[in-house]
Design brief:
Layout lengths: L1 H20 L9 E7 L3 E11 L2 E8 L3 H7 L1 E4 L4 E6 L6 H7 L9 H6 L5 E6 L2 E16 L6 E11 L2 E6 L3 E6 L2 H19 L2 E9 L3 E11 L4 E8 L7 E11 L5 E9 L39 H58 L7 E3 L4 E3 L3 E20 L9 E7 L9 E7 L2 E8 L7 E8 L3 E19 L2 E18 L6 E8 L5 E2 L7 E2 L3 E8 L4 E17 L5 H10 L4 H46 L6 H43 L2 E2 L1
Parallel strand pairs: 1-15, 13-20, 18-25
Antiparallel strand pairs: 1-2, 2-12, 3-11, 4-12, 5-11, 6-7, 6-10, 7-8, 8-9, 13-14, 14-18, 15-16, 15-17, 18-19, 19-22, 20-21, 23-24, 23-30, 24-29, 25-28, 26-29, 27-28
Length: 684
């Protein structure tokens, strides 16, 4: 029974929704021009005539309404005035549910009626009709005789003219709210829930005011599939004849309206676009302030001494709180007033700027900084249909080439075409099918090609041509210098690439294009120069006769300098550089002078190390002798022997100490001489 009421309400909502969806579209403003962009949007222009005060309805898909609200422009060319543009507000369902105290959970009839506590209702039950006001819903729990099964039932409590009545939910056959406004709100809510699932289109109404017959234009931007390009290239049978190219645009009408004799333009640019949900109402959360009230007077008990002062201090706290409340309220009011002024001024300024900008664009007659194809004849495309439209057809400059690229696997190059865009139009990216005379030769792909620019494209493997590549890299020291005690080496690295080309075709000559990678920071030094250079490649052209063999040598060089400490170099390496002509005799002599001074320093260091080692050895032996002397009587002859050895050790330690001090002085002097020599050493 409870499903009956909900079913009736849903049926009402569905009927309203279906009636809206089946309304006949207004054709007073048919589509007259369409401009499609490669950024996923299209600009639509509708033109027509109206008479007197009227309105025009435009139908759009529900997901397109935000684009329409963002971009719609309406113009009356004959003195009329454009009024309001109306559309159904897309208020969130959650707010509509909240207004009736409901949520999106599945409600039973009893739960639904319980939400309308206090409302007047008429109920048909199995025991007869009941009319009264809803008190609430109670849940009664019953158990089976064996106390194993528990069942819950909802009972609706109603206050009637005869008293309180309770009705089991299963006994309710139908129910109707007697408050027309509440019943209307509930019906609207169910319709909105139904429309949210089933509604596919939205109606935008445009009010037009004026007298007589007037010309009207409405333009807007909405999401559309990007238009695509595809090409066919036909190679001539005879050498010297022009190539022939055909370019097609693939256009898709995914709208629910036929395009009948529309002026179609295809724009190659990509204007900036974005989405914004303008159809959904937005609500701003505002701060809630307490209501300013006067505090009630409280009785006071007057006492002696400091108690009065304490009471006065305590009374100040409520007063301060009241002042703070007043200050907050005044501050909020001032902020709201200031915000209103700012919004008004900003809106006025923006309107003036928009009007000024629009006039400037119209007076200049500028078509924008984008290239577009404008079709000469009107186009018709049925709804949910696509079409291929020819946009380019005619001769184009080009020549046959065989292309060998760095990423070519194997020894066979590609058959290709060096294409020069002589069509006077710009070619957009897309696939290209190549036909050699009337035979399919292969597929290729082109990128953007401006007017007069040329590109190479490959469409098949050239099995009649073999190219073997061999690469060798070597490095040599070209020059050695010593600057401020640092050896600077200038090195030359060379990469030699050798290509051996062998044409096995006994009937046709070949024009071969060999692409060689440009090494970053390297210089091309080979005698053979490229006919074209790109950001990453050198392109060399070789003309080959039938059944011929040729070679191509390409050398790139890089010069770099490295710095080495003198200690990292050895004399033998410098002498070899001298023999190669990279180092002068002065460099070798200067390095010998460095080696001599360095050896003198190292010699003194070795002497000091030997001195310290001997001192340590004698010191340890002296400690051993002292330990032995403790175990021998002073009158023993062995004691006297140990004493003499100890005295000799002490004399030697003193001599070593004096020698070490002298060596350190000598080391400091030789180190200073070496540092000065290195610091001032500069030999080319």
């Amino acid at each position: 029974m409870r499903a009956m009421l909900i079913s009736m309400m849903l049926t009402s909502g569905l009927a309203c929704s279906i009636a809206t969806a089946n309304a006949e579209p207004n054709e007073s403003l048919p589509i007259s021009a369409i401009t499609l962009y490669r950024s996923g949007v299209g600009s639509f222009e509708r033109r027509g005539t109206v008479t007197g005060n009227t309105s025009v309805d435009l139908r759009f898909k529900a997901e397109q309404i935000n684009d329409i609200l963002k971009s719609l422009v309406v113009l009356d060319f004959d003195g009329g005035r454009v009024g309001a543009v109306s559309y159904s507000a897309d208020e969130p369902i959650s707010r509509k549910l909240e207004s009736l105290g409901l949520n999106r959970s599945n409600l039973t009839l009893g739960q639904l009626l319980g939400k309308f506590q206090g409302a007047e209702i008429s109920i048909e039950t199995t025991n007869g009709p009941i009319t009264g006001r809803i008190l609430g819903v109670e849940i009664h729990t019953t158990r089976s005789e064996d106390n194993t099964v528990t069942q819950q039932e909802r009972w609706l409590s109603v206050m009637t003219a005869d008293g309180f009545v309770t009705v089991r939910e299963p006994d309710i056959r139908s129910a109707r709210l007697l408050d027309p406004e509440l019943q209307h709100d509930l019906t609207d809510l169910l319709i909105a829930l139904s429309n949210q699932r089933t509604e596919q289109s939205r109606i935008v109404g445009i009010d037009l005011h004026g007298s007589g017959e007037r010309r009207i234009m409405a333009a807007y931007v909405q999401e559309t599939p990007i238009w695509k390009t595809t090409y066919r290239l036909v190679l001539p049978e005879k050498e010297g004849d022009d190539l022939h190219i055909e370019g097609w645009a693939i256009v898709e009408n995914t709208t629910d309206q036929d395009w009948e004799d529309v002026s179609l333009s295809l724009v190659a640019g990509q204007p900036v676009g974005f989405r914004m949900d303008l159809a959904k109402p937005l609500y701003l959360t505002r701060p809630e302030l307490p209501v300013p009230v006067e505090l009630a007077a409280a009785p006071k008990a007057y006492e002696r001494g400091t108690m009065g002062l304490m009471m006065a201090t305590a009374d100040a706290a409520p007063m301060e709180q009241e002042e703070r409340l007043r200050y907050r309220a005044d501050k909020a009011a001032r902020s709201e007033a200031a915000l209103g002024n700012i919004v008004f001024e900003a809106g006025t300024s923006m309107s003036e700027i928009m009007a000024s900008s629009t006039q400037a664009m119209a007076s200049s007659g500028d078509e924008g900084e984008v290239f577009f194809y404008k079709l000469d004849n009107p186009v018709s495309i049925q709804r949910q249909q696509s079409a291929m439209i020819p946009i380019i057809t005619g001769p184009i400059e080009g020549r046959r080439v065989s292309i060998f690229s760095p990423d070519t696997s194997g020894t066979h190059p590609y058959r290709g075409i060096e294409l020069t865009n002589s069509t006077g139009l710009k070619l957009m990216p897309g696939p290209l099918s190549v036909y050699d005379s009337s035979v399919f030769a292969g597929d290729s792909q082109i990128g953007y090609i401006g007017d007069g620019e040329h590109r190479m494209l490959a469409y098949a493997v050239d099995l009649d041509l073999d190219i073997i590549r061999n690469t060798i890299q070597e490095s040599n020291v070209r020059r050695v210098r010593i600057i401020d005690g640092v050896i600077q080496q200038t090195m030359s690295m060379e990469q030699h690439a050798e290509f051996t080309l062998d044409n096995h075709d006994t009937k046709r000559d070949r024009t071969v294009v060999v692409e060689v990678p440009r090494l970053d920071g390297w210089e091309l030094i080979s005698k053979t120069k490229p006919y074209e250079t790109t950001a990453n490649l050198y392109r060399f052209e070789i003309a080959m006769g039938s059944n011929a063999t040729k070679k191509l040598e390409v050398t790139q060089q890089r010069t770099q300098s490295t710095s080495l400490a003198l200690t990292s170099m050895n004399l033998e390496t410098l002498i070899s550089y001298q023999r190669q002509g990279a180092a002068s005799q002065e460099i070798v002599d200067a390095f010998r002078g460095y080696r001599t001074r360095r050896a003198a320093v190292e010699e003194v260091k070795h002497k000091i190390a030997d001195n310290e080692a001997e001192t340590e050895r004698i010191t340890k032996d002296s400690m051993r002798i002292r330990d032995l002397m403790r175990a021998v009587s002073r009158q023993d002859a062995l004691y006297s022997r140990y004493l003499k050895q100890l005295e000799a050790h002490e004399d030697r330690i003193d001599a070593l100490r004096r020698e070490r001090e002298s060596l350190k002085v000598e080391l400091n002097q030789k180190q200073r001489d070496l540092d000065l020599y290195v610091r001032t050493l500069r030999v080319e």
